Amino acid sequence: xxxxxxxxxxxxxxxxxxxxxxxxxxxxxxxxMANLSKDLTELxxxxxSNLSIKKIEKIGKTKISVLxxxxxxxxxxxxxxPLMRLVEQFFTIVVGIYVIYMYFGEKSIVFLIFAFxxxxxxxxxTRKKSYEYGLLEVKKNKSVFYLLSLFMENxxxxxxxxxxxxxxxxxxxxxxxxxxxxxxxxxxxxxxRRIIESILYFSICFVAIFGxxxxxxxxxxxxxxxxxxxxxxxxxxxxxxxxxxxxxIFNNLPIISEYEILNSYILYKEKYRSKVIKPKAYIxxxxxxxxxxxxxxxxxxxxxxxxxxxxxxxxxNEPIAIMGQSGLGKSTLVETxxxxxxxxxxxxxxxxxxxxxxxxxxxxxxxxxxxxxxGRTMFEMLSFGNPNLKKYxxxxxxxxxxxxxxxxxxxxxxxxxxxxxxxxxxxxxxxSLSGGQKQRxxxxxxxxxxxxxxxxxxxxxxxxxxxxxxxxxxxxxTQSKIIIFITHNEDLLSIFKNVINLKDYSLK
Length: 508
Fold this sequence. Notes:
single chain; alpha/beta
């Protein structure tokens, strides 16, 4: 009777602790997953924001998009969540093993060792397949996402020509192969449950059969067998869940290896160890007087450079036009000028008023041909990345500056007639605006950032000739700026005193 009391009190304490621990872990996992998702998203963006343009081109836009949407969730719920749940499952299994040992003593050790070896052998025998299925799913997700993006980009052609089959066929095949891989992975992850349950029930049947040979023995052990059955039925799904968690981790490891998540974490720690995780806005202390190019060779590959510029100086308040046909390397030159791409050889130096080289200069606005800016209103588009503009109500100078820039870009008194109209809803992706209107808003946003260097890369080609010339003329009259216009429109060249033709420097 004393033994029974000791056993029951131990069981009561154990079950109470396990219950509180289980409730606490499940409650905390929700907030932990949410915080982890937030931190991982920031980590991924920081990582890609610190790569070179060459590295980003190699990775590809689609791969980055899939990571930050579908695969980020898979990392959270396929790797991080199972790791945390393993803690809960481990303690629960330990509790069950403790109960079995306390009730049945040393004779239960053989059974426990056998169960442990069984689950370990199942993990090792299926880990390779789980990784392969996960890798296939990653690749197919990327393919489906790319095809879907292509479908949306070409929707006008599809509606006009009805050639949707060229998109639906490959997309459906990729989805089919992805679901086959996912289904096989789920089958493997569920297999141990069937095996464990079968072994469990067969064991009980054999015990009962052998017990029938001695009816008095089976009757005396019926309570023990019942307890064993209840405990094993409780542990069996937990062991299965633990296996599924381990399987899920192996299944999603390809995402971590493919996207170099661990490298992202190292970068995250190195750059942002301070308490303030988000970097503060960079404030440039010096003004650039000129950009000097000396024996500058640019291109994508050392073996096949696109351009070689022996000597060129670009000065403040002396706007320059760089012209050339498509394929000559205009955009590649611009990326080299602003430090996004390393020169193949030679130098490109930013010099201040004292003629000293300024490194890591950040006060640059680069406006590409197609610039995507978020915003439900025109004011949101203009103020994206420039929160200072939101102080316009307190500072009348800011409001006056916004209106002045809108006039320079031929927005004010053209499709905007009052400041309040900037806050009208323009739809997702600014669908209520024309291409030319969006392009002018992009130009205005760049000017409102008030950077020292302005580089326009074919950024006015969506405008008619009259508007393009007028806006370009307004912009190049802006003082205290280094202004570079990249264009293939020869009609614009008459506006500029300084014109560079890349044909003279082409190596093609």
